[in-house]
Design a protein that fits this description.
The protein has 201 residues and is of the alpha+beta class. It has five helices and twelve strands. Strands 1, 2, 3, 4, 5, 6, 7, 8, 9, 10, 11 and 12 form a twelve-stranded mixed sheet that branches. A hairpin with a 4-residue loop joins strand 8 and strand 9. Helix 2 packs antiparallel against helix 4.
């Protein structure tokens, strides 16, 4: 499905444009459903400037616990659910019931497309995983959208503006996050893995 904000697409588009078309550009600006998104380049890091989506407290919801198969420390809501678990190991062991998550996401009184699950990091500031089966993505590898919520959440919790984060999907990813008030800066790397030509005959 089409979503208002997609870190993957923004990062990939910026990488190709910087690499092939706008080699001397200092920044790129994208007109999107989430407003103007700016991407800058610092050596091999691309920095995405996205709107911040701080979470709010959410009442206990047994269906979330059941779908995730875990008792969370706390649950919050923003553009998605944010579920805090005790530690990184608990996050790594998580095996959600995707059918239950899909049903949960389809409830009209439930916010967001998916569920962000997060914990303090063992060798970074915080770690996360993101599940959105209702959007056709059982588990997303690395999620810019989720870090619009994770960044202000962990910035307040840790008392830090700049943080290093890891998303613990099977493929995984490393991000540098900065809380800038009503905006967040999410930096990461991209690599070219395929180049080809499509003929429209």
């Amino acid at each position: 499905m089409e979503v208002d904000l997609c870190g993957h697409a923004t990062l990939a588009s910026a990488f190709v444009l910087f690499d092939d078309k706008e080699k001397n550009a200092a920044e790129l600006r994208f007109d999107t459903a989430s407003g103007e998104l700016v991407v800058t380049k610092d050596d091999d890091l691309l920095c995405l400037n996205f709107p911040s989506s701080p979470p709010r407290g959410y009442p206990a919801h047994p269906a979330i616990n059941k779908a995730l198969g875990i008792e969370p420390v706390a649950v919050f809501e923003s553009i998605d659910f944010l579920v805090l678990v005790e530690n990184e190991e608990a996050l790594r062991r998580l095996t959600p019931d995707f059918s239950a998550l899909r049903e949960l996401a389809s409830e009209s009184n439930i916010p967001g497309l998916g569920i962000i699950v997060t914990a303090p990091g063992a060798d970074c500031d915080f770690v996360s995983r993101y599940f959105a089966p209702e959007a056709g993505v059982p588990e997303d590898p690395v999620t810019g959208r989720a870090h619009c919520t994770l960044t202000p959440f962990w910035s307040k919790k840790l008392g830090k503006k700049v943080m290093d984060a890891r998303q613990l999907s099977k493929r995984g990813g490393v991000l540098r996050c900065e809380d800038c008030g009503d905006r967040v800066k999410i930096s990461g790397k991209a690599v070219r893995y395929l180049k080809g030509t499509i003929y429209n005959g």
